[in-house]
Amino acid sequence: MRILITNDDGINAPGLAVLEAIAAEVAGPTGEVWVVAPAFEQSGVGHMISYTRPMMIAELGPRRFAAEGSPADCVLAGLYDVMTEARPDLVLSGVNRGNNAAENVLYSGTIGGAMEAALQGLPAIALSQYLGPLNYDEDLQFAAAAAHGAATVNALLDRGSWDGADYRLFYNVNFPPVPADQVKGLRVGPQGYRRDASFGVEPHLSPSGRRFLWIRGGAQNLPTAPGSDAALNLDGYIAVTPLRADLTAHDCIADVKARLE
């Protein structure tokens, strides 16, 4: 199996090293793992592509490249510049430091990388590690993902639903904020919503007196609706959510047609 991996935390992020180990186990001894990751952190860029500017790409080692672009850019670079002899069989994005559950899905560059792979017709999985009081210590942060990542990916490959739809199905996986031996199992649930946890801004003055705004996130320890992604994570489960890039509110089509046509 040929696997392409990327992330949004950057080529030197510890979560990428965890994903390399996961991908190597999934690919097997005769497989290949290719890395095309952002040269610098790209958290929060979503599905952005660098449509109006070129990006430099550098080979750092065998099958290892850094690109000055977003995770979606890196997937495009991997498919159309780096792996031109044969497309990958699977694209993995992550492991993100911090959860990409609930509303974070809409902002996440980790999700953006997997989404671009799906739009390119490839199986894709985004992986993120929820952080909390039980695993915030540096030595424990990625322990759950490292211990359960390969089994989760293999379970999706073996028993997950995969299709060839125009907006192809891809998966969002979030590992719970607990040590590896406290993970209760795997559950499938929808994207949730954290009430009263939206992004905002915080103004600061620079030493020169200029006014700047920092984007500030909301509380991440708020549970979502029972059975949805963040709630499952906070209860100790690996949360798996099937996603599509299609943003149509299909449940409203008939009603809006009746009102407007």
UniProtKB/TrEMBL annotation:
Its cofactor is a divalent metal cation. Keywords: Cytoplasm, Hydrolase, Metal-binding, Nucleotide-binding. Signal peptide: none annotated. SUPFAM superfamilies: SurE-like (SSF64167). Gene3D superfamilies: Survival protein SurE-like phosphatase/nucleotidase. Transmembrane segments: none annotated. GO terms for molecular function: 3'-nucleotidase activity; 5'-nucleotidase activity; exopolyphosphatase activity; metal ion binding; nucleotide binding. This is 5'-nucleotidase SurE. It comes from Rhodovulum kholense.
